Amino acid sequence: MNLSNYLKLKNKIPSNVNILAVSKGFKSQEIKTIQNIGQNDFGESKFQEAYEKQLILKDLQQINWHFIGRIQSNKIRKIVQNFKYIHSVDSFEKLHKISNISCEEKKNPLIMLQVKFSNDPNKGGFNPELLILKWREIQELKNISISGLMTINPKGISSKENLELFKKCRSLADSLQLPDCSMGMSGDWQEAIEAGSTWLRLGSLIFGERA
Ligand SMILES: *Cc1c(COP(=O)(O)O)cnc(C)c1O
């Protein structure tokens, strides 16, 4: 990791756009180094890997942990106990379960619902029309705070296509009056900013290539 790259990147990003440093595949020491210069939001996609780092870093209380990976039902309790944000809620069923467990655990996680705007078979997510149909029911769920939508674009599409898909996410979030859009990764963060992202999920751009 190169701290001056991180600082340069930070200067290019508007102040209303948050950086989520995606630390999956990187060690707790690397998290510590970048946390030391003011990066407090970290994203992880596998519970066990994340939890090991959380234990090592438990004294760094300013860190906000974000879960961004595929959610297995049998891990929901642990995710609710250990993460402030959950970006990757991709079905009503899981959202409902998160709500029930959050009630039991007296937690109130911030949620971004993952939405799928393309036909990428490798990606999960709510279908936008179904999300709209379920919206009233979703809003009645207790002990969750839905702050926005999250999306992952398919690999290998053009810059223009990236921008179009991100704009769909932004406009759906606006129509549901949700402030946040978690969108944009190391390869498409500029388009995401242009479309109105509020959370860029950046891994390799900050930490370097994963082994
Ligand atoms: C790994 C990952 C990222 C970061 O990917 P980079 O290309 O390294 O920036 C962002 N979002 C999700 C959901 C990821 O799994």
Task: Explain this structure.
The structure is a single chain. This protein is of the alpha/beta class. It has one domain (3-10, 18-205): TIM Barrel (Alpha-Beta Barrel). 42% of the residues lie in helices and 17% in strands. It has 9 helices and 8 strands. The chain has an 8-stranded parallel beta sheet. Helix 4 links the parallel strand 3 and strand 4 (85-89). The radius of gyration is 16 Å and the shape is globular. The mean pLDDT is 96. The structure holds pyridoxal-5'-phosphate. Pyridoxal-5'-phosphate binds at residues 22, 24, 45, 68, 152, 185-187, 201-205. Residues 22, 24, 45, 68, 152, 185-187, 201-205 line the site of pyridoxal-5'-phosphate. This is Pyridoxal phosphate homeostasis protein. Residues 4-210 form the Alanine racemase N-terminal domain. Belongs to the pyridoxal phosphate-binding protein YggS/PROSC family. GO terms for molecular function: pyridoxal phosphate binding.
Short summary:
With 211 residues, this protein is α/β, with parallel strands linked by helices. Helices cover 42% and strands 17% of the residues.
